[in-house]
Amino acid sequence: MFIVLEGIDGCGKSTQAKLLYNWLKKKHDVILTKEPTESKIGKFIREILSGSISVDPKTLSLLFTADRYEHLENEVIPALNSKKIVVCERYYFSTIAYQMAQGLEREWLVNLNKFALKPDIALFIDVLPEIAVKRTVTGEIFETCEFSKKIYKNYLNFNLIRINGKQDVKGVFEDIKEVVENKIQNSGSVN
Ligand code: TYD
Q1: End-to-end CA gap in the chain
Q2: Are strands 2-6 and 85-89 parallel, antiparallel or unpaired?
């Protein structure tokens, strides 16, 4: 089973991904992973996000997507094939929401990602940009309120499972657990 957590910067997705991982691992084989990854492509992306190198948004989209296809081949698909649950922070919804906010065409971004495996569960942790931006700490290039507002709007156009992120950490996690538990029960197995 492939579970993806999405949301704008500062929405609390890393905290929730860790809680979900720790809860699932009591009963299942599970890996916790994220995009951008720790690969060479991922490290290059981090340099761009820090603002030390600047590239065209099209180039950045291609890098995020390249990082994703390598992630799928080397980590996600092998884990799923060995019946593990994969919890992944960010996936192609991020490329579409963020790089559209940089002015790129949705269709082109969707097309780039069309060979990427569809997740079984895609959660959107819904926190308003005004609140989320106060929680961001890294100073990366996308962490501004104006930009987050655009990304937030783009996320609302996807068909994602919306989790009310305005609750406290425990409340958000309870909602996520309910979605995941139902899916595991209804699928009869974890893969
Ligand atoms: P993020 O998960 O927020 O990392 P961290 O919290 O460790 O800084 O991801 C880094 C940034 O990259 C974030 O602003 C979202 C952005 N991003 C894209 O613009 N496109 C993508 O395809 C992905 C995966 C992330």
Answers
A1: 4
A2: parallel
pTM of the model: 0.96
Closest CA to 89 of 53, 42, 144, 130: 42
Which domains does the chain carry? 2-187 (3.40.50.300)
- Is the peptide bond between 36 and the residue preceding it cis, with omega within 30 degrees of 0? yes
pLDDT tens digits, 8-56:
999 999 999 999 999 999 999 999 999 999 999 999 999 999 999 999 9
Q: Does 150 sit in the ligand 1 pocket, CB within 6 Å?
A: no
Q: Is the CB of 36 under 6 A from ligand 1?
A: yes
Q: Which of 9, 18, 65, 88 to mutate to test the pocket of ligand 1 (most atoms within 8 A of CB)?
A: 9
What six digits make up the tokens of 177? 């657990």
* Span 75-132, pLDDT tens digits: 999 999 999 999 999 999 999 999 999 999 999 999 999 999 999 999 999 999 999 9
Element (H, E) at 31: strand 30-34
- Please name every residue paired with 89 in a beta bridge, in sequence order, or none if there are none: 5, 34
For residue 90, the ligand 1 atom closest to its alpha carbon is 24
Q: What angle do CA 79, 175, 116 make, to 5 degrees?
A: 35
